Amino acid sequence: MSAEATHDDSNYLNATSGFKSWFMTVDHKRLGIMYLATILTFFLIGGSFAMLVRYELLDAAPTLSASNYNKAFTLHGAIMVFLVLVPAIPASLGNFLIPLMLGAKDVAFPKLNRLSFHIYLFGALFFVTTLVLGGVDTGWTFYTPYSSKYGTNVITALAGAFILGFSSILTGLNFIVTIHKMRAPGMTWGKIPLFLWAMYATSLIQVLATPVIAVTLVLLVVERFMGIGIFDPALGGDPVLFQHFFWFYSHPVVYVMILPAFGIISETITIHSRKHIFGYTAIAGSSVAIAAVGFLVWGHHMFLSGQSETMGAIFSFITFGVAVPTAIKVCSWIATLYKGNIRWNTVMMYTLGFLWIFAIGGLTGLPLATLSTDVHLHDTYFVVAHFHYTMMGGVLFALITGIFHWWPKMTGKMFSEKAGVPVSIFAFLSYNLTFIPQFIAGHRGMPRRYHEYLPQFEEMMRLSSIGSFLFGLSLFGVLFVLIHSLLKGEKAPQNPWQGLSLEWETATPPIEHNFEGQPICTCGPYEFPDIDVKERVAAK
Amino acid sequence: MGHSHSEPHISPLSLYFTVFSCLIVLTFVTVGVSELGLPSTLSIIVAMAVALVKATLVATWFMHLIHDTKLNIALFLASLWFMGIFFIFTTFDMASRGNVMKMSDTFEFRQKRADDNVRAGNVKVRKSDDPNKPHAFKFSTNGGKDWEDGLIAAEHSSSH
Amino acid sequence: MSSENANQKHYHAFFFHTMDQQNSSHKLGMWAFLAQELLFFSGLFMAYIAMRYFYPDTFGEVQTRNLLSIPMGFTNTIVLLTSSLTMALAVREAQLIPVEENEESKKHRKRLIQLLVVTAALACVFLVIKYFEYSHKLHVGTLPGKFYHFAEWPIFTDTDGSILGAIRPDGSIDVTSAPHIFFSLYFVATGTHGLHVVIGVGVILWLALRAKRGEFNAEYHSAVENVGLYWHLVDLIWIFLFPLMYLVK
Predict the structure, then answer these.
(1) Quick one: fold of C31-247?
(2) What is the pTM assigned to this prediction?
(3) Per the structure, how many domains does chain B have?
(4) Of residues B71, B79, B93, nearest to A307 (C-beta)
(5) Is A444 exposed, middle or buried (0-12, 13-18, 19+ CB in 10 A)?
(6) B115 and B148 in one domain?
(7) B89 chain-A contacts, CB cut-off 8 A
(8) Which pLDDT score, from 0 to 100, does residue B155 have?
(9) Which of C39, C104, C103, C64 is nearest to C237 (CA)?
(10) pLDDT value of position B37
């Protein structure tokens, strides 16, 4: 690996200054930071709507009007899915890390990268406009005929989602080409960090699935304007057809959200247990397998919508199949921990939290994939809890893991473990307090998207709401740890966690063009020299 | 790292013109076959088969896939594959509805509303001898006769 | 370290080691973009398949009633195929421009520009014919969805805005007939395709401008190649759209 000259303090953060140098930058690292800041801002807004929803559900009697409640959960869902979860890891950490991990000086298309960011902001503007105009109330799933005939401010929301889709497509396109074409000499596919395998699979889905939602939203807008009669039964259309269109993208998109999260966990679980990853090939292959098979299961969202039972059975069967590669990953991670030298630091706490949370999320998908049980669980809080465990718990905990793990690299500062670890435990506990009661309530029949409900669910709903307020607090705790680090954190060493992938081989924070020369890859990213189990045993 | 420069394959002019001629001929074939009056399903299959051949010609020679890396071909085929999944699964759903459980039928529902409206005398048809009436294209296969007569028949049967 | 910094041509980006890497990256990027364009149009084809499945007779009746002009569609197909040829030939000319400036480079550059302009012109012919088709439909009333008001094949709209079906000559309503949906599909599909043609014209003319400025040669012409790929895709989509809309009964 090439040595880095630390002759001066110039890095990508201070190399140039001024609004224009940031807003018009083509530097993937600056774009990653700006994406992160924007995404966290929208997370705050989407989270506020969540708090509104949970506040409403504190007791069985209604507080908000039904239509305002519809707006609250729609805005929560739409903002979280389109503005936060989809770009959360790819656009921020993906952008920052991919060229660094590959040993490249930037992504394949830096100007396109900048365009992706600007498109993201433009799409976000449409969502803000929707908010200002009074919000949209169709549910983030925009089911017809409500969304094609009634609903409020539907077109601005659809336009926003459409535009955001292009940001996602272009980012995915950029990453596919970058990973294929810009690897350092000696870095074969078998030597790239697993985060890159995850990002590669994610990018494939982004490019292939997102255009379908784009055309769906266009057709919905045209249906609303002109009554073209494709999705509205009153005009001769088929509302289930809309659901096919919608879920053909919206199922693969959950893999866009979670695959990068898996990638992060693969990185942190090895470094922080000082042990090589168990099953590199299995984890890499399962990422691509999830991407491919994930395109074949969308009908499991439509078991009760009027889809044929035969097709439902086929989708159910394949859905069981897509759980297998995911299980392979979870088992491989646990096997990685086994006999490792685990460091109980903040990053590891969130990593372990992820393992628990995602395991629950994945397992609770099984009764939903099963036709007979889904009849009872569909559209109940069980589903809500399931997807919050996988998407919110999974993606968010992994994102936080990744932010802490690469924080020194991005900012050049360390953060306080003394504060970080307790906050992580608080976050984990309050998260579970929020969502486990939802499984129970849903299992007992509490429907989703209802602003008033039967009194027998009040106990569980109240626990959940209290949990959610505490969880919100814990996230502010995370923010506090990060801001404290920026203001008062110690200067980070170049490689604080002794990682072996190329991003740790350059300056911390990196210089503007990443590497002084061309780094060469001579070993795999997980061949930690002194902690391999076999060597330790042999040394005895 | 040395300067590596792979020579791009420059196809001869004759190749382009040959492919182009095939495309034109196939276009004539497409239109010709459609005039044969084949049964609907067969007609669609033949038309799509011809279109597929034309598409393959364009992709292979005009888009140079034949000289390209397998990666680009794979990406193109992958998109076709997932497109196919979308078509096949969705169509299979539409075709197998009602196989296990009879569901309420939109067509039945609409037919009932239609019949109600006809009975109530709500159905009005425009007069057929309006000089400003817009026509379809003049190149009609049967002189546009049958629907014009039909319209006049409707004129007589419905009330205004 | 390679000689990238010192002798690097201005069209060779600093983050690529070789032109080969740059060109193959640009091409892969374009194919990824084409893959997503295909999936975008697949939604329109899926809508066609679904609506044809529900209303098979409507599609046939459109042709029987001669509501789409086959000669115009046929002409447009030939026009677009020809433009595909000229585009492919333009790419070939770009491949033949030597890096040093001499008589040969001038000759091939001139041909490149001419072929690009001809391609754009043919695309404009396509759009003009489409304009005639669309304006005729506007005139007779075969418009999408609730704007449909063609007198010779009327549809019945109930008081609550729902469209129940076409009105038969005897005054009854045929709920299995939905011409307003056919024309919705027609306009959305050909309209989206037409939009892509318009964008193509703009991009091709921009290429011609860049070519005039001498920006392309055998070593660097990925923009021409890749716009060519885009243009062939536009042609590909029409190859399927034409029979599906105009020809199959």
Answers:
(1) Four Helix Bundle (Hemerythrin (Met), subunit A) (1.20.120)
(2) 0.92
(3) 3
(4) B93
(5) middle
(6) yes
(7) 244, 296, 299, 311, 314-315
(8) 45
(9) C39
(10) 79
